[in-house]
Design goal:
The chain is of the alpha+beta class. It has eight helices and 20 strands. Strands 6-7-8-3-9-10 form a six-stranded mixed β-sheet, with helices on both faces. A five-stranded antiparallel β-sheet has the order 13-12-11-14-20. Helix 2 runs parallel beside helix 4 and helix 3 packs across helix 4. The chain binds adenosine-5'-triphosphate. The site of adenosine-5'-triphosphate has 11 residues, from helix 1.
Length: 354
Protein backbone atom coordinates (compact mmCIF):
# COMPACT_ATOMS: atom_id res chain seq x y z
CA UNK A 1 0.00 0.00 0.00
CA UNK A 2 1.11 3.55 -0.70
CA UNK A 3 0.43 6.91 0.90
CA UNK A 4 -1.40 9.51 -1.18
CA UNK A 5 -0.51 13.19 -1.51
CA UNK A 6 -2.67 15.66 -3.35
CA UNK A 7 -1.04 19.03 -3.97
CA UNK A 8 -2.94 22.14 -5.05
CA UNK A 9 -5.20 20.04 -7.28
CA UNK A 10 -7.49 22.00 -9.61
CA UNK A 11 -10.09 21.07 -12.17
CA UNK A 12 -11.97 23.47 -14.38
CA UNK A 13 -14.73 22.53 -16.79
CA UNK A 14 -14.91 25.55 -19.13
CA UNK A 15 -15.61 28.52 -16.90
CA UNK A 16 -16.73 26.49 -13.88
CA UNK A 17 -14.29 25.42 -11.19
CA UNK A 18 -15.03 21.92 -9.84
CA UNK A 19 -11.92 21.52 -7.66
CA UNK A 20 -10.13 24.62 -6.47
CA UNK A 21 -6.64 24.07 -5.05
CA UNK A 22 -7.09 20.95 -2.95
CA UNK A 23 -4.28 19.81 -0.62
CA UNK A 24 -4.56 16.51 1.20
CA UNK A 25 -2.42 13.64 2.46
CA UNK A 26 -3.71 10.14 3.19
CA UNK A 27 -1.24 8.11 5.25
CA UNK A 28 -0.54 4.47 4.52
CA UNK A 29 -3.38 2.38 5.97
CA UNK A 30 -5.59 5.39 6.68
CA UNK A 31 -9.20 5.84 5.55
CA UNK A 32 -10.03 9.42 4.65
CA UNK A 33 -13.55 10.41 3.61
CA UNK A 34 -14.40 13.32 1.33
CA UNK A 35 -17.72 14.63 2.56
CA UNK A 36 -19.76 17.47 1.15
CA UNK A 37 -22.96 18.48 -0.60
CA UNK A 38 -23.77 17.45 -4.14
CA UNK A 39 -21.54 19.17 -6.68
CA UNK A 40 -18.77 20.17 -4.25
CA UNK A 41 -16.11 18.29 -6.26
CA UNK A 42 -15.73 14.98 -4.40
CA UNK A 43 -16.10 12.65 -7.37
CA UNK A 44 -14.01 14.89 -9.61
CA UNK A 45 -11.20 14.69 -7.02
CA UNK A 46 -11.46 10.90 -6.81
CA UNK A 47 -11.44 10.58 -10.60
CA UNK A 48 -8.28 12.66 -10.82
CA UNK A 49 -6.62 10.44 -8.19
CA UNK A 50 -7.67 7.34 -10.15
CA UNK A 51 -6.37 8.84 -13.40
CA UNK A 52 -9.73 8.97 -15.22
CA UNK A 53 -9.64 12.75 -15.46
CA UNK A 54 -6.61 14.99 -16.13
CA UNK A 55 -6.24 17.83 -13.61
CA UNK A 56 -6.11 21.44 -14.79
CA UNK A 57 -3.35 22.02 -12.25
CA UNK A 58 -1.59 20.48 -9.26
CA UNK A 59 -0.09 17.07 -8.56
CA UNK A 60 -1.06 13.59 -7.35
CA UNK A 61 1.63 11.45 -5.69
CA UNK A 62 1.55 7.80 -4.60
CA UNK A 63 4.25 7.55 -1.95
CA UNK A 64 6.75 10.03 -3.38
CA UNK A 65 6.06 9.14 -7.02
CA UNK A 66 4.33 11.78 -9.14
CA UNK A 67 1.54 9.94 -11.00
CA UNK A 68 -0.28 13.03 -12.29
CA UNK A 69 0.39 12.16 -15.92
CA UNK A 70 0.19 8.39 -15.53
CA UNK A 71 -2.84 6.75 -17.22
CA UNK A 72 -5.40 5.03 -14.95
CA UNK A 73 -4.39 1.46 -15.83
CA UNK A 74 -0.81 2.09 -14.70
CA UNK A 75 -1.72 3.53 -11.29
CA UNK A 76 -2.74 0.27 -9.65
CA UNK A 77 -5.78 1.60 -7.81
CA UNK A 78 -8.73 -0.57 -6.78
CA UNK A 79 -11.93 1.33 -7.36
CA UNK A 80 -15.49 0.57 -6.23
CA UNK A 81 -18.35 2.50 -7.78
CA UNK A 82 -21.87 3.17 -6.59
CA UNK A 83 -23.21 1.28 -9.64
CA UNK A 84 -20.90 -1.75 -8.99
CA UNK A 85 -20.07 -1.77 -12.74
CA UNK A 86 -19.90 -5.57 -12.97
CA UNK A 87 -19.84 -7.33 -16.35
CA UNK A 88 -23.31 -8.90 -16.64
CA UNK A 89 -22.15 -11.82 -18.84
CA UNK A 90 -19.42 -12.92 -16.41
CA UNK A 91 -19.80 -14.90 -13.19
CA UNK A 92 -18.70 -13.43 -9.86
CA UNK A 93 -15.37 -15.28 -10.12
CA UNK A 94 -14.83 -14.15 -13.72
CA UNK A 95 -15.59 -10.55 -12.76
CA UNK A 96 -13.08 -10.72 -9.93
CA UNK A 97 -10.46 -12.39 -12.14
CA UNK A 98 -10.84 -10.01 -15.08
CA UNK A 99 -8.21 -7.50 -13.91
CA UNK A 100 -5.73 -10.32 -13.28
CA UNK A 101 -6.26 -11.67 -16.78
CA UNK A 102 -5.62 -8.19 -18.18
CA UNK A 103 -2.38 -8.13 -16.22
CA UNK A 104 -1.36 -11.40 -17.88
CA UNK A 105 -1.40 -13.69 -14.82
CA UNK A 106 -1.51 -17.42 -15.51
CA UNK A 107 -4.68 -19.43 -14.89
CA UNK A 108 -3.55 -21.22 -11.73
CA UNK A 109 -2.33 -18.05 -10.03
CA UNK A 110 -5.51 -16.27 -11.08
CA UNK A 111 -7.71 -18.95 -9.60
CA UNK A 112 -5.88 -18.88 -6.26
CA UNK A 113 -6.10 -15.10 -6.01
CA UNK A 114 -9.79 -15.02 -7.02
CA UNK A 115 -10.57 -17.67 -4.42
CA UNK A 116 -8.77 -15.68 -1.73
CA UNK A 117 -10.51 -12.44 -2.69
CA UNK A 118 -13.97 -14.04 -2.71
CA UNK A 119 -13.22 -15.58 0.67
CA UNK A 120 -12.28 -12.16 2.05
CA UNK A 121 -15.73 -10.85 1.18
CA UNK A 122 -17.45 -14.13 2.23
CA UNK A 123 -18.74 -14.98 -1.23
CA UNK A 124 -16.88 -18.21 -2.04
CA UNK A 125 -20.15 -20.13 -2.21
CA UNK A 126 -21.55 -17.83 -4.92
CA UNK A 127 -18.51 -17.77 -7.23
CA UNK A 128 -20.35 -19.23 -10.23
CA UNK A 129 -23.37 -16.95 -10.08
CA UNK A 130 -23.96 -14.15 -12.57
CA UNK A 131 -24.59 -10.59 -11.28
CA UNK A 132 -28.31 -10.87 -12.06
CA UNK A 133 -28.46 -13.86 -9.68
CA UNK A 134 -26.95 -11.85 -6.81
CA UNK A 135 -28.52 -9.33 -4.42
CA UNK A 136 -27.33 -5.71 -4.40
CA UNK A 137 -25.21 -6.33 -1.32
CA UNK A 138 -23.64 -9.44 -2.86
CA UNK A 139 -22.89 -7.60 -6.10
CA UNK A 140 -21.24 -4.88 -4.06
CA UNK A 141 -19.02 -7.50 -2.42
CA UNK A 142 -18.00 -8.85 -5.83
CA UNK A 143 -17.02 -5.30 -6.76
CA UNK A 144 -14.99 -5.06 -3.53
CA UNK A 145 -13.25 -8.37 -4.25
CA UNK A 146 -12.48 -7.23 -7.79
CA UNK A 147 -10.89 -4.04 -6.45
CA UNK A 148 -8.84 -5.91 -3.83
CA UNK A 149 -7.64 -8.82 -5.93
CA UNK A 150 -5.13 -6.74 -7.88
CA UNK A 151 -3.37 -5.84 -4.63
CA UNK A 152 -3.88 -2.12 -5.24
CA UNK A 153 -1.66 0.70 -3.99
CA UNK A 154 -4.76 2.67 -3.18
CA UNK A 155 -8.38 1.76 -2.52
CA UNK A 156 -10.89 4.27 -3.95
CA UNK A 157 -14.56 4.12 -2.97
CA UNK A 158 -17.11 6.30 -4.76
CA UNK A 159 -20.40 6.31 -2.82
CA UNK A 160 -20.06 2.52 -2.52
CA UNK A 161 -23.14 1.99 -0.35
CA UNK A 162 -25.67 4.38 -1.84
CA UNK A 163 -27.62 1.68 -3.67
CA UNK A 164 -28.12 -0.48 -0.60
CA UNK A 165 -31.05 -0.23 1.81
CA UNK A 166 -30.43 1.36 5.21
CA UNK A 167 -29.97 -1.87 7.18
CA UNK A 168 -27.60 -3.44 4.67
CA UNK A 169 -25.70 -0.18 4.35
CA UNK A 170 -24.99 -0.20 8.08
CA UNK A 171 -23.75 -3.82 7.88
CA UNK A 172 -21.57 -3.42 4.79
CA UNK A 173 -20.12 -0.21 6.25
CA UNK A 174 -18.79 -2.17 9.22
CA UNK A 175 -17.54 -4.98 6.98
CA UNK A 176 -15.64 -2.65 4.66
CA UNK A 177 -14.10 -0.79 7.57
CA UNK A 178 -12.99 -4.06 9.23
CA UNK A 179 -11.47 -5.29 5.97
CA UNK A 180 -9.76 -1.96 5.35
CA UNK A 181 -8.21 -1.99 8.83
CA UNK A 182 -7.24 -5.67 8.71
CA UNK A 183 -5.52 -5.33 5.32
CA UNK A 184 -4.13 -1.85 6.07
CA UNK A 185 -5.67 -0.38 2.92
CA UNK A 186 -4.92 3.26 2.16
CA UNK A 187 -8.41 4.42 1.26
CA UNK A 188 -10.12 7.49 -0.11
CA UNK A 189 -13.90 7.35 0.28
CA UNK A 190 -16.35 9.73 -1.35
CA UNK A 191 -19.70 10.14 0.30
CA UNK A 192 -22.42 12.67 0.97
CA UNK A 193 -23.72 10.54 3.85
CA UNK A 194 -22.40 12.01 7.10
CA UNK A 195 -23.16 8.92 9.14
CA UNK A 196 -21.14 6.83 6.69
CA UNK A 197 -18.26 9.28 6.90
CA UNK A 198 -18.36 9.57 10.70
CA UNK A 199 -18.47 5.82 11.29
CA UNK A 200 -15.94 4.71 8.68
CA UNK A 201 -13.23 7.34 8.46
CA UNK A 202 -10.05 8.00 10.42
CA UNK A 203 -10.25 11.55 9.10
CA UNK A 204 -12.90 13.56 7.31
CA UNK A 205 -12.46 16.26 4.72
CA UNK A 206 -15.49 18.52 4.52
CA UNK A 207 -15.63 20.15 1.08
CA UNK A 208 -17.70 22.94 -0.34
CA UNK A 209 -17.52 24.51 -3.81
CA UNK A 210 -14.34 22.66 -4.74
CA UNK A 211 -12.49 23.68 -1.56
CA UNK A 212 -11.64 22.10 1.74
CA UNK A 213 -13.56 23.63 4.63
CA UNK A 214 -12.04 21.52 7.42
CA UNK A 215 -10.02 18.34 7.88
CA UNK A 216 -9.97 16.32 11.10
CA UNK A 217 -11.02 13.24 12.96
CA UNK A 218 -14.78 12.60 13.12
CA UNK A 219 -14.77 13.70 16.76
CA UNK A 220 -12.82 16.89 16.02
CA UNK A 221 -15.24 17.90 13.34
CA UNK A 222 -18.32 16.98 15.33
CA UNK A 223 -17.23 18.58 18.61
CA UNK A 224 -15.12 21.44 17.30
CA UNK A 225 -16.35 22.54 13.88
CA UNK A 226 -14.59 25.65 12.73
CA UNK A 227 -17.64 27.24 11.15
CA UNK A 228 -21.40 26.89 10.92
CA UNK A 229 -21.25 25.07 7.56
CA UNK A 230 -19.11 22.27 8.99
CA UNK A 231 -21.16 22.15 12.21
CA UNK A 232 -24.32 21.70 10.20
CA UNK A 233 -22.86 19.28 7.68
CA UNK A 234 -21.39 16.72 10.06
CA UNK A 235 -24.49 16.38 12.23
CA UNK A 236 -27.72 17.91 13.46
CA UNK A 237 -27.03 21.26 15.03
CA UNK A 238 -28.92 24.22 16.48
CA UNK A 239 -27.34 27.21 14.77
CA UNK A 240 -28.48 30.65 15.86
CA UNK A 241 -27.05 33.85 14.45
CA UNK A 242 -26.28 36.82 16.64
CA UNK A 243 -23.35 38.14 18.61
CA UNK A 244 -21.35 37.56 21.73
CA UNK A 245 -22.31 39.82 24.62
CA UNK A 246 -19.46 38.81 26.92
CA UNK A 247 -17.52 35.71 28.08
CA UNK A 248 -20.69 33.96 29.23
CA UNK A 249 -23.52 35.24 27.06
CA UNK A 250 -24.56 35.23 23.42
CA UNK A 251 -27.46 37.34 22.15
CA UNK A 252 -29.33 35.96 19.13
CA UNK A 253 -30.50 38.26 16.34
CA UNK A 254 -34.00 37.80 17.81
CA UNK A 255 -32.86 39.05 21.20
CA UNK A 256 -32.65 35.78 23.13
CA UNK A 257 -29.73 35.66 25.58
CA UNK A 258 -28.03 32.25 25.82
CA UNK A 259 -25.38 31.01 28.19
CA UNK A 260 -21.97 30.05 26.81
CA UNK A 261 -18.49 29.57 28.18
CA UNK A 262 -16.03 30.24 25.41
CA UNK A 263 -12.41 31.24 25.57
CA UNK A 264 -12.09 34.77 24.11
CA UNK A 265 -9.53 33.51 21.58
CA UNK A 266 -12.01 31.07 20.10
CA UNK A 267 -14.63 33.54 19.09
CA UNK A 268 -13.02 36.37 17.12
CA UNK A 269 -15.40 36.35 14.13
CA UNK A 270 -18.07 34.25 15.75
CA UNK A 271 -21.58 35.27 14.87
CA UNK A 272 -23.19 31.84 15.18
CA UNK A 273 -24.08 29.86 18.28
CA UNK A 274 -23.83 26.12 17.53
CA UNK A 275 -25.21 23.49 19.90
CA UNK A 276 -25.84 19.80 19.23
CA UNK A 277 -29.43 18.71 19.97
CA UNK A 278 -28.29 15.88 22.27
CA UNK A 279 -26.39 18.32 24.49
CA UNK A 280 -29.63 20.02 25.58
CA UNK A 281 -31.75 18.71 28.43
CA UNK A 282 -35.48 19.34 28.52
CA UNK A 283 -37.59 19.69 31.68
CA UNK A 284 -41.39 19.71 31.84
CA UNK A 285 -42.97 22.67 33.67
CA UNK A 286 -42.64 26.43 33.74
CA UNK A 287 -39.58 26.69 35.96
CA UNK A 288 -36.06 27.46 34.73
CA UNK A 289 -34.23 30.34 33.03
CA UNK A 290 -34.90 29.34 29.45
CA UNK A 291 -38.62 28.63 29.17
CA UNK A 292 -40.71 27.89 26.13
CA UNK A 293 -43.37 25.66 24.67
CA UNK A 294 -43.23 22.37 22.85
CA UNK A 295 -44.02 22.60 19.13
CA UNK A 296 -43.61 18.98 18.17
CA UNK A 297 -42.61 15.64 19.66
CA UNK A 298 -41.30 13.00 17.26
CA UNK A 299 -40.79 9.44 18.44
CA UNK A 300 -37.79 7.82 16.74
CA UNK A 301 -37.62 4.55 18.67
CA UNK A 302 -34.58 4.72 20.93
CA UNK A 303 -34.56 8.52 20.71
CA UNK A 304 -37.20 11.24 20.76
CA UNK A 305 -36.91 14.60 19.06
CA UNK A 306 -38.53 17.71 20.57
CA UNK A 307 -38.98 21.06 18.86
CA UNK A 308 -39.19 23.79 21.46
CA UNK A 309 -40.03 27.43 20.77
CA UNK A 310 -38.42 30.02 23.01
CA UNK A 311 -39.31 33.58 22.02
CA UNK A 312 -38.74 33.68 18.27
CA UNK A 313 -36.17 30.87 18.25
CA UNK A 314 -36.85 27.15 17.81
CA UNK A 315 -34.51 24.60 19.36
CA UNK A 316 -34.22 20.95 18.35
CA UNK A 317 -33.58 18.67 21.32
CA UNK A 318 -32.81 14.96 20.96
CA UNK A 319 -32.99 12.74 24.04
CA UNK A 320 -33.01 9.06 24.72
CA UNK A 321 -36.70 8.09 24.68
CA UNK A 322 -37.95 8.35 28.27
CA UNK A 323 -39.47 5.44 30.07
CA UNK A 324 -43.29 5.52 29.92
CA UNK A 325 -43.42 6.29 33.66
CA UNK A 326 -41.26 9.44 33.41
CA UNK A 327 -42.98 12.86 33.22
CA UNK A 328 -41.05 13.59 30.01
CA UNK A 329 -42.88 10.74 28.27
CA UNK A 330 -46.18 12.64 28.57
CA UNK A 331 -44.93 15.80 26.81
CA UNK A 332 -47.13 17.04 24.00
CA UNK A 333 -47.38 20.15 21.81
CA UNK A 334 -48.10 23.42 23.68
CA UNK A 335 -46.78 22.06 27.01
CA UNK A 336 -44.46 24.38 28.91
CA UNK A 337 -40.84 23.28 29.25
CA UNK A 338 -37.45 24.68 30.10
CA UNK A 339 -34.13 23.90 28.41
CA UNK A 340 -30.68 23.61 29.96
CA UNK A 341 -27.15 22.85 28.85
CA UNK A 342 -23.66 22.80 30.21
CA UNK A 343 -22.29 26.24 29.32
CA UNK A 344 -19.23 24.54 27.75
CA UNK A 345 -21.40 22.60 25.25
CA UNK A 346 -22.16 25.39 22.73
CA UNK A 347 -19.52 26.66 20.35
CA UNK A 348 -19.35 30.11 18.91
CA UNK A 349 -18.28 29.92 15.28
CA UNK A 350 -18.25 32.15 12.24
CA UNK A 351 -21.26 31.62 10.02
CA UNK A 352 -18.81 31.08 7.19
CA UNK A 353 -15.03 31.06 6.99
CA UNK A 354 -14.76 31.64 3.24
P1 LIG B 1 -22.30 14.35 -6.08
O1 LIG B 1 -22.30 14.09 -4.61
O2 LIG B 1 -23.61 14.89 -6.58
O3 LIG B 1 -21.75 13.22 -6.89
P2 LIG B 1 -19.73 15.70 -6.22
O4 LIG B 1 -19.32 16.45 -5.01
O5 LIG B 1 -19.10 14.39 -6.46
O6 LIG B 1 -21.30 15.62 -6.30
P3 LIG B 1 -18.61 16.40 -8.78
O7 LIG B 1 -19.27 15.29 -9.53
O8 LIG B 1 -17.18 16.27 -8.49
O9 LIG B 1 -19.40 16.69 -7.43
O10 LIG B 1 -18.88 17.75 -9.58
C1 LIG B 1 -18.31 19.00 -9.20
C2 LIG B 1 -18.78 20.08 -10.18
O11 LIG B 1 -18.20 19.86 -11.45
C3 LIG B 1 -20.28 20.12 -10.38
O12 LIG B 1 -20.69 21.45 -10.48
C4 LIG B 1 -20.46 19.38 -11.69
O13 LIG B 1 -21.62 19.84 -12.35
C5 LIG B 1 -19.20 19.73 -12.45
N1 LIG B 1 -18.79 18.69 -13.39
C6 LIG B 1 -18.43 17.41 -13.09
N2 LIG B 1 -18.08 16.71 -14.18
C7 LIG B 1 -18.23 17.58 -15.23
C8 LIG B 1 -18.02 17.48 -16.64
N3 LIG B 1 -17.58 16.35 -17.21
N4 LIG B 1 -18.27 18.58 -17.39
C9 LIG B 1 -18.70 19.74 -16.83
N5 LIG B 1 -18.91 19.90 -15.51
C10 LIG B 1 -18.68 18.84 -14.72
Amino acid sequence: MASLSIENLCKRFGASVAVDGLDLTVQEGELVALLGPSGCGKTTTLRMVAGFLPPTGGRVLFDKEDVTRLPAHRRSTGMVFQSYALFPHMTAAQNVGFGLEMRGLGRAERETKVEEALKLVRLSHLATRFPRELSGGQQQRVALARALVINPKLFLLDEPLSNLDAKLRAEVRIEIRALQQRLGLTTLLVTHDREEALTMADRLVVMESGRVRQVGSPRDLYDAPQDAFVADFVGRCNILLGQRENETQFRTANGLVLSVDIAPSESKNANAFALRPERISIHPGAKGDLRGSVQAVTYLGSQTEYHVRIGKEVFVVIRQTPDASEPLAALKPDDQVSLQWDSRAPRLVPQTSV
